[in-house]
Amino acid sequence: MALESLSILVITVPLLAPVAAELGFDNIWLGILVVKLIEIGMVTPPVGISCFVVSGTSGVKVTEVFRGVLPFVLLDLAVVAVLFAVPDIILWLPSLVVNY
Asked: Which of 4, 61, 35 is nearest to 69 (CA)?
């Protein structure tokens, strides 16, 4: 919650990747989901670093920025749910690259 995105990646991915590989999950799938979830974390309260940066540079109140981001966060959560439910969506494009 209190870390920025690169710190979260450096701490969590070395712990998650071997466990996910052992359970049979694809590394590309895991990487895309981790990045998507970190992106959601960077705009949601209480820390929402990206929203505070937007508020500071634009002069708009932080509450207004969080209110404006809310529909996008809900949409991102729906996308993550779909990506969890249908992992082949993530792996479709890389599978086309492998075939060539």
From this structure: 61
Answer whether 0.85 is exceeded by the pTM.
no
In the chain, the DSSP E strands lie at none
Q: Is the peptide bond before 45 cis (omega within 30 degrees of 0)?
A: no
- Which domain does 53 fall in, by range? 5-99
Q: Which helix (H) or strand (E) holds 23?
A: none
pLDDT tens profile 26-41: 898 999 999 999 999 8
pLDDT band at 99 (very low <50, low <70, confident <90, very high): low
For the CA atoms of 82, 83, 84, 85, the dihedral, rounded to the nearest 10 degrees, stands at 50
Amino acid letter for position 57: T
Q: Considering its fold, how many domains does the chain have in total?
A: 1
